[in-house]
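Need tokens for this chain, all 136 residues.
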Amino acid sequence: MYQKGRGVPQNDKTAVKWYRLSAEQGDALAQSNLGFMYHDGLGVPQHYKTAAKWCRLAAEQGDATAQNNLGNAYGLGQGVIQDNVYAHMWLNIAPSSGNKVAVKNRDIVAKRMTLADISTAQNLARECVRKNYKGC
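Here are the structure tokens for all 136 residues:
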């Protein structure tokens, strides 16, 4: 389940304008919130691929909500090719970054995976953390 970003203003179009300005400057919170806006079509047309792009940028900076949302995108194939291993990887990383909801989401994905796939996802998660979330 995608999680709403923190501090989303009431006026969606205005929010998108300001989030985009900050997101383009590399602000992880703005990137995460912009990803949420595109995912839900708030102030912009719904576009999963763009949502995943912004979530990835924020996730690579350690934003726990974006990591959860990117894991969910992989789990559902929304904006990215569906991949339970990468879904599990991001949903395994997000709790250590502070997103406890991701544990439940990770467990849902794990039910669709083999033990070997889970092991692969856990190894990828450890490697991703070692790389400080870059290029995962």
